[in-house]
Design goal:
426 residues; alpha/beta; Cobalt-precorrin-4 Transmethylase, domain 1; Methyltransferase, Cobalt-precorrin-4 Transmethylase, Domain 2; Rossmann fold; five-stranded parallel beta sheet; 13 helices; 19 strands; 29% helix; elongated
Length: 426
């Protein structure tokens, strides 16, 4: 082992012989932490050690290791495959430092799955769907569901996507969610199940409809390969690409305004965004494309518009976007603190809404609100001044060409004012 004060993290593959360094570490161990399935391994190779399963308290593993080491234990943490790939070693390295943890990896399950299925993975997007699954993926839980990383990768046209799965977040559930996101036609799904264990099985190039109807044994790796590349731009989609309320077509933040608003929001990939008064969902859905590691929470008081926004979310594969039918600020308490807030409609509660959002927005966060009436512009600037928020305003008055006989003219859109403020960093 790396020394009495160093925890050792080992990798093991079912059905494979242990590496000599791993057997040495186990032979010297007095305490072994690992999943319940590692008990026979510890009993055979760590005769002087007490074995303790860690499933019930895995998040406390670094602290448990530290206490055991102080008490003189020689600690080994047993994991499957490579402990540095979505494994226990990451938390231990963060806690103890790289010089105080010995990592003895095995081949990863990803390597073996790709080898079994004959899929090169040098350019793969590697994701994990591990996590506590309380309910199937839906638009309501999209930002925090364990399937989110898999589905966001698919929405961004990644291929191949190699996913570590878990019960309730496996290939079956991935396939069902791809269908809901209008992505089923783009992907085929291959599965390598129970690698190295009794009942090992492989499935190749299933259509998502086939995968959704198949019960795959766990543990398994799901690999998504693209058959049809996506062509969506990151943002700036044509107004006509969106479903809009009829017969009042046009109740949408226009393309030019969306582009400026998104620029002012200055989004980063990990941002949490609020889209208040979402309407057809256009700003929030384009924000979702720009925040693949973050999430967008949309809020809309009109039930018909909520339904339209959901139609657009399916159309644009918004796997990290959710919407609530509510009149803000009611309902905002459910969402995590935002890094960026876009207000496209206030339902008559503008000053209260701006105050609440400014209180909740993270340090360094950006708030953008759009207006078409002077009265709301005046209310907004007064509210932001009262909050001592460093605001500025932009007037946007776009015009688009339209045919007139054999020629073209410019037809002006309604002027829009954008009020923007950035909260001081902490």
């Amino acid at each position: 082992m790396g020394g009495t004060m160093n925890p050792t993290v080992i990798g093991w593959l079912p059905g494979e012989p242990l590496l000599p360094a791993v057997t040495d570490a186990l032979a010297q161990a007095t305490l072994v932490f690992g999943a319940k399935g590692f008990a026979p391994l510890a009993e055979r190779f760590a005769p002087n050690a007490h074995f303790e399963p860690f499933e019930a308290w895995l998040a406390q593993l670094p602290e448990r290791c530290a206490r055991a080491i102080v008490q003189g234990e020689r600690v080994v943490v047993a994991t499957t495959g490579d402990p540095l790939f979505h494994g226990a070693a990451a938390a231990l390295l963060a806690h103890f430092g790289p010089d105080a943890v010995t990592v003895l990896p095995e081949r990863s399950s990803v390597q073996l799955a790709c080898a079994r299925l004959g899929i090169p993975w040098h350019n793969a997007t590697l994701v994990s769907a591990h996590g506590k699954v309380r309910e199937p993926w839906s638009w309501k839980n999209a930002p925090h569901h364990p399937l989110r990383p898999v589905l966001v990768a698919a929405a961004h046209n990644r291929s191949p996507i190699v996913a570590l799965t878990a019960p309730g977040a496996g290939a079956t559930e991935i396939a069902s969610a791809l269908t809901e996101l209008s992505l089923a036609h783009r992907y085929r799904i291959s599965v390598a199940a129970r690698i190295g264990l009794d009942g090992e099985a492989l499935w190749r190039d299933l259509e998502p409809s086939q995968a959704a109807a198949t019960a795959f044994p766990h543990p398994h790796i799901a690999i998504l390969t693209s058959t049809t590349p996506g062509t969506e731009a990151a943002f700036g989609w044509d107004d006509d690409a969106y479903a809009q309320r009829q017969p009042e077509k046009g109740l949408i933040t226009k393309r030019e305004v969306r582009a400026v608003a998104l620029a002012l929001l200055a989004l980063t990939p990990h941002d949490t965004v609020w889209d208040i008064g979402a309407g057809s969902g256009s700003v929030g859905l384009e924000a979702a494309r720009l925040t693949p590691e973050g999430a967008v929470w949309a809020f809309e008081k009109n039930a018909d518009d909520v339904a339209i926004a959901l139609t657009n979310a399916r159309r644009f594969h918004a796997a990290n976007w959710t919407i609530r039918h509510t009149k803000a600020p009611a309902g905002l308490e459910e969402a995590p603190d935002p890094n960026a807030v876009f207000i496209g409609g206030s339902g008559g509660e503008l000053a209260e809404l701006l105050t609440y959002c400014w209180q909740r927005i993270a340090p360094g966060g950006r708030l953008i609100a759009t207006f078409v009436t002077l009265e709301n512009l005046a209310t907004a600037t007064a509210a932001m001044t009262a909050l001592d928020a460093p605001w500025h305003a932009t007037q946007l008055w776009a015009a688009r060409t339209k045919p007139i006989l054999a020629m073209h003219r410019f037809a002006a859109e309604n002027p829009v004012w954008l009020v923007a403020a950035t909260k001081e960093p902490s």
